[in-house]
Here is the input.
Amino acid sequence: MKFIPTLIAAIGLATGALASAQEADIRKALAERIPQMDKIDEVRPTQMKGLYEVRIGTDLFYTDAKGDYVIQGELIDAKARRNLTEDRIAKLTAVEFSALPLKDAFTIVRGNGKRKVAVFEDPNCGYCKRFERDLQNVDNVTVYLFLYPILSPDSAEKSRNVWCAKDKVNAWQDLMVRDKPAPAASCDTAALQRNLAFGRKHKITGTPTLIFADGSRVPGAIGAQEVEKRLAEATGESTRAN
Here is the structure.
């Protein structure tokens, strides 16, 4: 029976070679038929038999084994009730918290500040204002606020006034929570440009975008209760509670 491990290993190698050949065929077919798909980063099988994921950066497409058809959309696992495309993109766009350029943010500390979250916000974003008002109800947290002026030239001006204020936190809270504009100010705003570059690199396309300590990312405004839930998950509080 000593031949069994060898046979299993041989089958594994053959399967791997077949998969590699399949991926190569898909790459070749798509590059020839769709010039925009000549630089594919990854091809891999999905949970649906005969369907392959084609990844270009963080953009996902789906194709058959021959590259005859391309689908742009979301793959849903109806049985598990999970959006597989959304799950995959979340993994691809996750940002290590330790990789965040915290020097380009200012901090808002509430309570003991033990829990941490980074937020990218535009001062002209209505959803950001709603989020900031909800965030007032979350305690024992440190918020790293990255000014991310992407909506209009006026966003850049307002971000500059906040960043250059003597008290950034107060200027930000006045603007977003109390609708009181920050006085005109000027200083070195290279940090804001670095924030924009960081956002482009990591596909931060909307505000607010939240990044929690475990690297999980949430695009869009969420309420205080959901923030609490995410903070607990990121720090393992919910696991310890169970």
